């Protein structure tokens, strides 16, 4: 089979060196990659590097190899165009249809999915002109990944950092797998909780669960690839931030509840994939609880945590907001799931069987997605991102 053809555009920012890692991941996973840098990008990484890593000659100009009409053919033959980093200047040119070099010509001729991974200083990212250009590109069907928060050029820190190249690769992979499908969540804000809450007993111990957060992170990655503005609320996870998602960190059920409430205020969809502790200790010991010779420990008194899924379902922040819940069951899986769907009041409930060697920490999952309309969608055992796409398929159909 022919290798998928990817055009990697690189514009002139200090993060250009990180695109070398993205190029390596694309080529090693079986993609035929042609690098098209801007002239400014070559100030950061030279043409010889791009050529050696991709196996193709590198040019910035439409006049090189003119007999092959590269300014037209490069975009026409691509299955995906990804621009990383995409500077403010590149976003402006793309939004306004300027074509003064090979990369901007390629963007105009491409009829495949296009992904932009912006990188710039915070002030540039937040400028109204840039925000308008991003909105224009998204409206036309491009996937513009939200930049990460972190160290920028010099001593500056803020939003505008290029996301991890490995995570940009995951977005590209998901976009390619959907082929020419339009980003059906574009213009939507989705909020996803992931991981497992921990309820502290004393400074060194807690009540928790086995959730790794991998299913919630898969939901976030697939949402980004489908064009959504994505807020991920991670509870005690050790996973890399998905490119394009705004990530909030929480620890306890009460912290998760507060974060979900705030994030859901303008959300179109809320997905509660986190494993929330049902109970927490009635009292927190400020010092480590000690063993005492010859004495049994005092009984541990627990109190109920709030039912966040039921609260979000009952008090939807806006008309038409969809709520998706997750139910981890160990027996009578579907019967318990149907009962929980009615009790929680959500639109969709993803029900799966869990156990010591099932689901938690695994890269795979299987589930049945129950709908408040009586529908049941079985998802066979497979990668968690497959289940994530099924969930978003069902959500997109209900959003209309």
UniProtKB/TrEMBL annotation:
Cofactor remark from the record: Binds 1 FMN per subunit.
Originating gene: coaBC
Function: Catalyzes two sequential steps in the biosynthesis of coenzyme A. In the first step cysteine is conjugated to 4'-phosphopantothenate to form 4-phosphopantothenoylcysteine. In the second step the latter compound is decarboxylated to form 4'-phosphopantotheine. Catalyzes two steps in the biosynthesis of coenzyme A. In the first step cysteine is conjugated to 4'-phosphopantothenate to form 4-phosphopantothenoylcysteine, in the latter compound is decarboxylated to form 4'-phosphopantotheine.
UniProt name for this protein: Coenzyme A biosynthesis bifunctional protein CoaBC
Cofactor entry: Mg(2+); FMN
Region (Phosphopantothenate--cysteine ligase): 190-400
Residue segments, region Phosphopantothenoylcysteine decarboxylase: 1-189
Residues that coordinate or bind CTP: 278, 288, 306-309, 326, 340, 344
